Amino acid sequence: MAARLLPILLGVTFCINVNANYTDPSLGPGQRSQDLLQRLTWEEKIGQMGGIRAAFTSVNGTVRFNRSAFEEIRLKENGQIGYGRQANWAAELLPIMNRLRMEQINSSRLHIPYIIIADSVNGLWFSGGTLFPGTSSMASSWNLPLYEQVIQASRDENMAMGINWVLSPEVDIVKDPRNGRNGEMYGEDSYLVGEFATKYIKTMQEKDERGFYKVATTIKHFVFGTGSGGINRASMAGGLNHILNDLAPPYQKAIKEAQPLSLMASYSAVDGVPMSVNKYLLQNVLQDILGFKGLIMSDANAIELLLNTHKVASSRKDAARKALSAGLKHELKPGGGGLFTELSSMSGDKDVVALVDASVRAFLEIKFATGMFDLPLPTIENMQSTLRNPRHLEINKNITRESIVMLKNDDEFLPRTKSNISATGKIAVVGPYADVINAGNYAPVVLYDPRYGDSFLSSFQKVLGKDNILHAQGTSKILPNYDDDAQQQDEAAIAAAVEKVKEAGLAVVILGSGLGNFMPNTINNDRTDTEGWSHPDLGFPGAQQQLLDAVLDTGVPTILVMSSGQTFPLPNSTFNRCRAIFHSWLAGEYTGSSFVEIFLGETNPSGKLTVTIPEHNGAFPVNYDFLPSDAGGGFGTSLAYDWHWPQLTRKAPLAFGFGLSYTTFSVSSVNVSVSTNAASSNQSVAIQATVSNVGNVSGKEVLQVYFRANYSIIERPVMKLIRFEKLEVDPAEKKIINFDIPIDELGYFVTGDWVVERGNYAFWVGTSSRYEDLRRVELVI
């Protein structure tokens, strides 16, 4: 083969005077990566196994680039690169990143480009893009087609910044309400999580007209979610059936239907074995049983934790070799100094050489599959026309409107109209979360940034006029205060808020937890709900409950809005006295304005809980899909009761799937039968139901289907979600909904084998997981 010009980036070409199949875009990623692998030196291979995760820092909002530190890392770790600090703005970052990418191509012996990697939860990791709500918020919409539009917009904005590999989606299951990362997750149900995750991956990894994946995804964290005490890096217990049936179903679905190109192992030690060295779970389970064939990477600094936290490695070299042998193929080490660089001294070890070759080949395949060797660098013009364009902002408004969940509306207190607001007087908007955008720690720094949307307070002021809105923060700080001065400040702040409420005819109290992100600043020190934080107390942090009690004591009609990624128990004294209650979850830039639309009846709320809200601070686990024995009573008379006798019920009222509307829906004519495909002889369960709007306004309802086999080989949950659909129904309108469920989907794992029961099944169809919202039908399969 003759020498070939390598067409790469901005029209620059390099002449490769070798038989270079890797430069031929007509060949597949596998062929190209294998060819390039054979041309790499040992040191070049090791360099591809890490990268420079944080190329830029930020000082007072200004981009800072440390050339000497950058070059020190690049010398040994040069496979991928990341933008770094969230406070930096896209317009400043892109020109610098383009120069760094060109430098890498010019200086690399074989002109191997970086691939840019970033988290993508609320959209762009750094500032300047469309700020969508957090994962917990968008899942509360239960609207998969609308979520697809969100991910399309997010994907296009990432691509406009040259990001072709994201560290998302997170498919961990919300099992412990104390976990500070629950806001990053879709919810407590494995089926719902799998549906959203698969939609994310398919949409991000959609191919362009040349056949390149637009953005590679990283499904994570395998496995995670039940760490001791709700602590992020804590150990997990659990046998194979628990892992495969409770934690792994989203992976099973996504791997089968969407094929994520990479996967991130979790920090946790499972059954005493840290996941970074858990060969059984990463190979026997993940690859052999679940069928994952892509690249497995470490979480940030996870290989180093084997040495200094887990204490299962005796040296950096030992940790690197053990992680490589277990199945890790790429290392994330944001600060540089990755432990995979220690492999450079093991070129004489045949086992290590084979594993390194397999790792580098898998990584290069992602680069080739995403067009890194063939596509031009992103342009400033495309960035300007893509980021925050009108279509993306409208999609953002739509998903936000459907993500807010109404939990109570006493005697149809809402919606209000401007006329009845005028009659009752001013509105007091109070609370420490009233005038911030609480977007979560994977979002840019937007708490008070006017370049993004409006807070709850400013949204009320814009719509109803500043003169009609009274405001007080109500507490001095977010975090609990223990010294006398802080307590006195809180008491004074609460007293000032109460005076505002008494002056008004209506109070809107916005409480929550969170604030800040990974930026080291003063706001960061007030974080109470996010990665690295857990909740020994599920109540509102600081003096917020005292503030709410004081407002309720005034007798002024009060609406409570909760802003966070966590759930808060609502004692009877709170729940019964609030006229309306909402959870807005982690905010986007339109959460405040969307809430005001709901408040005024311009938008009918349609969000549904994807997690169950505990009735009490210690009443968990609280998931709706518990095992029958988890609700067992005690002895004697207590057998008449179930969970936490006699105070609570096992199925909490604010349950998974629950959410109110300004209209009323009815589910009727539920029919279930077995159908057989004439061509394949495969059997399915056919379910039909009628949804009617018996209220006075149009609204959106989520029809949900749950099931359970009456008897099973191993103990199975009391019910499991298996289908849902969100639909809009006008007043007096009826819609017939059909679901087709292949019988194979009714199965579960028993010690690694997939089992589908034959016999009696129960199916429930309705509007939440609460029995009172469901209609039960039986079927023999």
TrEMBL record:
Q: In which pathway does it act?
A: Glycan metabolism; cellulose degradation
Fibronectin type III-like domain boundaries: 701-769
Q: Where are the transmembrane segments?
A: none
- Please give the biological process terms from Gene Ontology that the record holds: polysaccharide catabolic process
Residues in coiled coil: none
Keyword Glycoprotein annotated? yes
Give the reactions, separated by semicolons, that this protein catalyses.
Hydrolysis of terminal, non-reducing beta-D-glucosyl residues with release of beta-D-glucose
Identify the stretch annotated as signal peptide in this record: 1-20
Keywords carried by this UniProt record: Carbohydrate metabolism, Glycoprotein, Glycosidase, Hydrolase, Polysaccharide degradation, Signal
SUPFAM superfamilies associated with the record: (Trans)glycosidases, Beta-D-glucan exohydrolase, C-terminal domain
Enzyme class per UniProt = hydrolase
Name the Pfam families for this protein. Fn3-like, Glyco_hydro_3, Glyco_hydro_3_C
Q: What is its EC number?
A: 3.2.1.21
Molecular function terms, GO-annotated: beta-glucosidase activity
Q: PANTHER family this protein is in?
A: BETA-GLUCOSIDASE
Q: Which family does it belong to?
A: Belongs to the glycosyl hydrolase 3 family.
Tell me what this protein is called.
beta-glucosidase
Organism in which the protein naturally occurs: Periconia macrospinosa
